[in-house]
């Protein structure tokens, strides 16, 4: 009889497979073979019992397992209490952490659907089957009630018997076409006994012998009486809760996948744009580089020609003057009086011409161009090349000291003890501001009368052709300000700086007397020479030394809009109003 009971290994090791049996496949993903004793993990993925046993434990935990007598309670611990080890493994399909029962993989539920599908697989791949009753003829039909394969003779006999005449018999070819069959589920404790009953207290399907022995005091009923209730519960969970969620998950997954495809397409398109931009920008940079190099070559030729012309002029002037000087010296040293007088006319005319109209460059104006004024400014905007903005310019401007300017009022006026500042702007021969710094700038501030009174200055290079100058004069008076660039005075240098005395503000109160302003306090003092009897330290109306009018309590000045008198003046006034001789 061909029956695949729990643990049957019929048809193993046939073909490499793909997916678990719970999804309608007959091969599992670990061993790639037909299922052998398929077991269902708590995550509802099916694997061979042997494959589950070979899984590496993910974690191991222990707890006390208490054995309670069947149908009753206990009042004290039993010796049967023992620690139960729970092994957690990772599902090979979904990587979920699942706990194995205390009995191990053997205690997992058997996937009977996988066994049915394995049987259908054997029907399709193993060829003709023998009759399960006589074992002689080839089976062509199958009784769905008895779950046996029948030859033609046994099939007719099965229909004639009264006990089996009502059984449903189908041809094996029809079963192959349907791909599904009904197979009895046998009890693992009592081989050959079909699980037809359901124990409600234990929540387990059992056979008749289990009901008569192990579950004799339990409420047991046929499986057909409880299948609707349990099936409806499963159906409710699937249709009401999980199926809508499944649809939402599938829809969301489709959106995510569509977004991934859109993202990938967008990234690739953007990457293409970036590469095209990089190629275009590289071409523009290369073109700009060639333009800068051509500009450098033009500057080199221009400066070289200028130096050559300057050299020719200097050489010609040198030859003219040297020849004339040598002739005149030879004439004076070797010629007689008559010879000197005879050549005097032409010699004087030549020497006079050279002295008055000859080329005589000032040393400050003759500065051989060594190219130090040529520089590359990599961060300076250079416009656009082929539609791309580029940076980097060749700067060839040189400073013209005569065109430099000074901005700011700090060059003409200042205040004692206060910070003054002005700005020097270096310009080229065209009057345009240089775009770079680095020039040698010297600023000196000296008192015109007190030569040893110098003011320390600070020059800050702004790296844009301008230089900020700051100073703090400590004494009033006139100062001379020298501003030099490359050891040459700029136009207008030296300048005259007038430093005014610092305005001294009053620190006291403008009052009539200290007695009134303080509310009669004896400790109140006043800067005027007035006194009061009775231990008062300040002044009072009609008393000795009172100015007779409102005055400042800090210095005694009777002018409200005025500077506070210095301490030297206050010290010159004695308590008896006698002036001491002081140097004001």
From TrEMBL:
Residues 246-273 form a coiled coil. Pfam families: Filamin (PF00630), zf-B_box (PF00643), zf-RING_UBOX (PF13445). InterPro entries: Filamin/ABP280_repeat-like (IPR017868), Filamin/ABP280_rpt (IPR001298), Ig-like_fold (IPR013783), Ig_E-set (IPR014756), TRIM45/56/19-like (IPR047153), Znf-RING_euk (IPR027370), Znf_B-box (IPR000315), Znf_RING (IPR001841). It catalyses: S-ubiquitinyl-[E2 ubiquitin-conjugating enzyme]-L-cysteine + [acceptor protein]-L-lysine = [E2 ubiquitin-conjugating enzyme]-L-cysteine + N(6)-ubiquitinyl-[acceptor protein]-L-lysine. This is RING-type E3 ubiquitin transferase. One of its GO terms (molecular function) is zinc ion binding. One of its GO terms (biological process) is nervous system development. GO terms for cellular component: nucleoplasm. Its EC number is 2.3.2.27. Belongs to the TRIM/RBCC family. Gene3D superfamilies: Classic Zinc Finger, Immunoglobulins, Zinc/RING finger domain, C3HC4 (zinc finger). Keywords: Coiled coil, Metal-binding, Repeat, Zinc, Zinc-finger. Signal peptide: none annotated. Residues 182-223 form the B box-type domain. It is an enzyme of class 2 (transferase). Filamin repeats lie at residues 396-499. Residues 1-26 are annotated as: Disordered. SMART domains: BBOX, IG_FLMN, RING.
